[in-house]
Write a structure and sequence with these properties.
It is built from seven helices and no strands. By secondary structure, the protein is mainly α. The protein has a single domain, classed as Arp2/3 complex 21 kDa subunit ARPC3, CATH 1.10.1760. α6 packs antiparallel against α7. It is globular, with a radius of gyration of 16 Å.
Length: 173
């Protein structure tokens, strides 16, 4: 990995950790919806990344969120599981005849496939996160509401981020 790309990912990781911990964790819309926007970094990993690279970046992202949020291992576990499935989900939404490096986005995948890709990632992550957070499982209706409303809010944040950030990092040469 070249130095500029590494530094861009590191800056993005630190920015997302700060945003999540300082602002987004404090949102609890109607007591159910909390955006877990930090998964945006995992969703944006390009198809050229190795599986171990995706897993390491996601684990450390989740670990940093856990360290500053007082959630021992919840984000690390959820983010790592999400990273395990990210390349698989990316292949589901990218045309089979594409052999180049895909950086997930509406411009590279198309609006609908990209939204479906984000939705699938978000629902997987939020389901795992909120189930782990709710152990012992007791109030299923509240759990489902938290998953659904938080996933919707996170998806909206990610789609807005996609709209306002046309340049997604350094160009590959």
């Amino acid at each position: 990995m070249d130095r500029d790309l590494f530094l861009h990912r590191l800056f993005s990781l630190l920015l997302l950790v700060a945003l999540q911990v300082l602002f987004l964790n404090r949102i609890a819309l109607f007591g159910y919806a909390t955006p877990l926007f930090y998964i945006w970094l995992i969703a944006r990993f390009d198809s050229s990344m190795t599986r171990s690279g995706v897993l390491l970046w996601a684990f450390f992202l989740g670990l940093l969120i856990d360290l500053f949020s007082g959630t021992p291992g919840l984000n690390a576990a959820s983010a790592t599981l999400l990273a395990m499935f990210q390349p698989v989900f990316l292949k589901l939404f990218v045309p089979l005849d594409r052999y180049d490096v895909i950086v997930p986005g509406s411009s590279t995948m198309g609006g609908r496939p990209f939204t479906g890709y984000l939705l699938l990632l978000t629902v997987l992550h939020h389901t795992v996160y909120f189930i782990l957070r709710s152990i012992p499982l007791g109030d299923w209706p509240v759990l489902v509401l938290k998953i659904v409303f938080s996933a919707i809010m996170t998806l909206v944040f990610m789609l807005v981020a996609e709209l306002v950030s046309p340049n997604h990092g350094p160009k590959r040469s």
